[in-house]
Every structure is written in structure tokens, then in C-alpha cells.
Specification:
The structure holds 3 protein chains of 3 kinds. Chain A is mainly α. Chain A contains 13 helices and no strands. The chains are: A mainly alpha, B mainly alpha, C mainly alpha.
Amino acid sequence: MFRIITLLCIQLQFINYCYSQDSLTIQLLALEKDIFYSTSDTVKNSLMVQKMDLMMKNKSDNDLILKNCKRIDDQFIPDSVEKSRFLWNASVIAYLENDLYYALHAIKEYQIVSNDSSITCESLKFFIYSNYDTEKTKIIVSDLIKRDSIFEAYECYSNAQSYEVRQVQLKKALSYILPGSGMVVNGNWTKGLLSMSLNSASALAIYYLISNQLYINSLAWGSNLIMKFYVGNINLTEKLINQKQVYRQKKLAKKCELSINDCLLKYPINYKFPSQGF
Amino acid sequence: MKLLNNTALIIAFFFLCSYNSFGQFDLDFVKHLSKNQFADEHLAYLESSALPVDSMAYFKAKYFIQYEKDSLFFEQCESAQNLLTTDTLFLRYLDNYFLKKKDSNRDQWFSLRNAIIPKDTVGALVYYSLASNPSLTDTTLVPVMLRNDFKNYARAYKKKPIVALLLSTVLPGLGELYIGNLRASIAKFGSQTIFGLQIVESIYFVGLIHPLSFVNIGFFSAFYVANIVGSYRDTKTKKHDLKNQFLFHVSDYYASMYPASIY
Amino acid sequence: MTKFIIFSYFILSTLQLNAQMDLSGTMANELIENCGSEKPKSRSFLKLSKSTSKYNPFTYLAGGLLFVYQNVLSEQISANCNFEISCSEYTKRCINEYGLFKGTLVGLHQLSCCSPTIYKDYCEFQISENGKVKNEVVK
């Protein structure tokens, strides 16, 4: 008998495992139904928080979780612990979905409600502010380093973000004076030399046309070739300078990735669920 | 016997796990799910409801239209046909929806609609039939707001690709002017004139057997032939585009004059 | 046997209860991703799907010229086409669809129309949000 019951349990578990996605939808639907039929705003919002927890636990798509999250009005969550838990999760999910303004709003509210100044909270603030306010990021980083030197990794990232290409104005001015030279100074040798040769070749061609009294040809080809190559050289120089800045920032940031991972392993940023004894 | 009992128990468990009923079907709840765009929950609710086949198909058709799954919508249409005929607001919504869709889906919908309500004289169906042959129609039938678009389409409908081709052969850009593409005709005429002048000048000063003359003649002839082929193609596509433009405006007109909704 | 069954039952149960997730990797990735983009990939060579074009050497010549233009020359002239599918890309697709002769002619036709005010010749629904004309290779 015992064996039969165990077998049935396995069967049930297996079916549940196979249909887990379906059962999640069913659970979400049941919660949504409760939300729809509840008349009290407090109950409604509490159920919405439950739904959000369920979605996070089951790794639903972040955009769906955020959509659900934005429906919740934290004013109707009476319990401050529950409210701060919701705000924390909201800021994490908004950050992951690149909705920085919502993340910023949620983390500010979270700090007001929970008065949390723990390392994990400051760490999350760093993540959100790093895309928004460099000055504030630096303050957070210096504060974190004082608490634990492992957060020098964040400083490394912050420095990578503030990297700027040198002599930008000089390179731009050079591209106006001698086409291609701005790119050469920027380190793009092939593109610079190609631009130089194209500009000089088209200038020579126009000179040849004028010297042979081919004025219409020189005007037509000149306006098409020289103007396009000359203006193109100026635009390309500017584009390459910006590209260099972005690539260098990315490269420097990648160097910090491992140490940032170490920080996150020591002070992990995760969703907060009710069972965690928050 | 014992094995049979066990199997029966397992099957019973399976059904218990997979069967989820949410009680009586609630239209307001469906509207709520639709409004908040909870796609998965919406479909799960419909599938778990104990609705008759035609009602199920009708609600699923609405669901698929909301999430723009046209082919799945057409699959449900046959079963939902009776309910569709009674829901005039949804029919109007479908008209507006399909007027802005791909040609094949639009044609499929309007032929289906014609089969459902063959004598329907109101709605976008009329304009759809107008669009299929504008030359036979009196423009006074068309509302004032749509008349300009209709006239443009009717005018383009009469244009013949072969005439555009011949005109382009006579004078570059003339074919485009014939079909009403003023900017394209100016651009083509301008560029061809400049190439022509360049050829004359290069032949006069450096002779015919010279790389510059070859380059100029090559460019001129390539663009000349391209313009002829292009005018022919443009005449065909212009008709199609102006028809779509007219039907788009019919859709907007209907959406503003007679608001329609899924629910 | 019973022990094995009970053991497997608990293993299956833990599979489902493994809800606590680790976001560390995702958070770090997001942070690095937000920093900037990778270098853009170069545009591909002409892809020929029709057998008739595959044996024509001039098709490869045209494909090579378009490849060089797209990857080397277009940036030198800051090419900014007025069509959503740029003239060179459109020509490439047309060659693939219609063959070398017709494809080149159709591509040249678009090139000769490509002027900043060309959108005025097209219907409203054919203009994209960035002001470019939506075009597609008709099959």
C-alpha cells in the first residue's frame, strides 16, 4: 500500500513538473480572479504583491513582472515590512528591465519606509545610480569602500564610465584642415589614410577636369565627390571619436566584471520573499 | 485487478491535476483580462471555461484579434460565425482592423464577411468593394473626408504601366510625372540632364574614346534604362499604395465616426 | 526499491521548490551592458539563393562592389539613405530576388529617386517614424 501511495505521489509530482508552466498560469489566473472580485483596495494590493512574488519565484518574464508591479499602489499596503519588501523587489525588477526612473523612485521610497542603509541596499543604489548620476555614484562607492575594500571593483567601474577620449577638439579641427588626419590622430590609421587618399584623388581629378576646360564635368563630379568625401571625413571623425570612447569604456568595464561578480557573491542582491524572515 | 485499480487511480490523479475549472463564465472578468493585457491568463481562463463550442470559438476569436494572431483568428471564424453576425460592434472593429492589414488577410476577412452577411450595405465592406473597382463608382457615394483619397486612387487606377514606360523612354522623368511622382520626376530629369551635358562636354573636349566619356555614357545609359524599368514598376505599385492609403483612411474614418470595440 | 522511490520523489520535489534564484550574474551583466555597445558587425556579402545567379561571375563582381561600398566607402561619405532599406542593401536584395540585370536596374531606380524630399511622393503609411520611406523587395 505504502509503495502504491509513493508511486502515485511520484506520478503527481511528475505531472506537476511537466505542466509547471500551465499550473503557474492557472495560479496566476486564480490570483487575478481574486484581485478582480475583491472590493477592498488593501486586499487587492496585497493579492497583487502575492501575484508578483509568484511570478518572481517562477522566473516569469521580467517585463510581465514589472507590468504587474506598476499596478500596485504601495499606499494600500498597510504593513511596513510588506511594503518595503515590495519596494525592494520593484526597484530590482525595474533595474533589470532598464526602467531607471521607476527603479530610482522605488529605491528612494524603500529607504524612507525601511530606513535600510545596509551594504546590499547601498550596492543596489550603486547599480541604479550608475546609469543616472555619476556624482551620486561616486559618493555611494566611496561610502561602500569605507565599509569593505572589496567594493573597489565598483570604483573601477565608475572610473571606466567616466573615461573620456583626449584631444577631441584638436582631432575635429584637424579633420577640417587636412581630411583624414583627425582619424589618424584618433588611432584609426586605415580609415584616415583612405579618407586622405580619396579626398586627394578626387581633388586631383577635379584639377585635371578644370585644366581640360571640362567645367560641367568638374562641377558635377566635384559637387558629388569632393563635397561628400570632405563632409564625410568630418562626420566620420566625430563618429569614430564617440565610438572610441564607448568601446574603451566597455573594455575597461569588462575588466572589472569579475571583481563585481565577487562583490555580488559576498553581498548578493536578490528578490525578497516573505519566507526569508525579512 | 489490483493493477487495474492502480491504473484507474493514476488516471484519476492525472485528471485532477490537469482539470482546472473556474466556475461560471464571467464576461466582466474577461473584459478585465483583456483591458490589462494578461494574455496567458486570458487564454487559460477561456480554455478552462465550460463554454459551448461556438461561444468558445467566438471568445477565442476575440482573443486572437487582440493579440494580432490573424491566422488563428480565421481558424475560429467558422465555429463562431453565428455569434459574429450578431455582434455588430465587433464586426465593425474587425473591418477597421483588417483594412490596415496585409492584402491577403484583408481579402480573406472581407470574403468571409461577405459570406456571413452578404447584403450588408453599411460599414467598410462597401468601401472595400469600392476599392476593388473605383472606375465604376460615382464619387458622391464616398464621404467628403475620404473623397480626395478616393479621387487620387481612382485617377491612379486608370494609369497604364506601358504608357509610363513609353513616356520615360521619350524623356527621362516624364513617366514618373505621369503617375504623379513630382519629386522623383524632377530628380530623374535633373540627374539625366546633367549626365547628358557631361557627355556632350567630354566628347567635345576629350573625344569619344576617353575613359571620362565612357564613364559618363555608362552612368547615363544605366540610369536611363533603370528609369524606364522603374516607371513601369512604379505605376503598378502606386495603384496598390493609393488603394491601401484609401483603405487606411476608411479605417480611421470609421474608427472616429463609429467607435467600435472588441468587447 | 521503496527507498529508491522515496529518494526519487524527494529529488523531484526539490526540483520544483528550487525557487530561490541568484540574480548576481544578471545584475553584473546588466551593469556591463549598460556601459556601451560592442563594435558593429560588418555587412555581409551578397547571398545568392537562385541557381541561375550562382553561375554568373558578374553577379559576384556586383556583390563584391556592393560589399566594398557598404563596408568601406559608405562611412567615408556619411551615407544616409532616405529609404528604410538603403539603396545598396536594396540593390543587393533585388539582385538576389530578380537576378543581376533586373536587380541592378531596380536598385539604380531607387538610387536615382533618393533625395531628401522624396517622402512627399509616398503615402502617409509608407513613411516611418524617422521620416524614411518604407520599402521592400516585392517577391
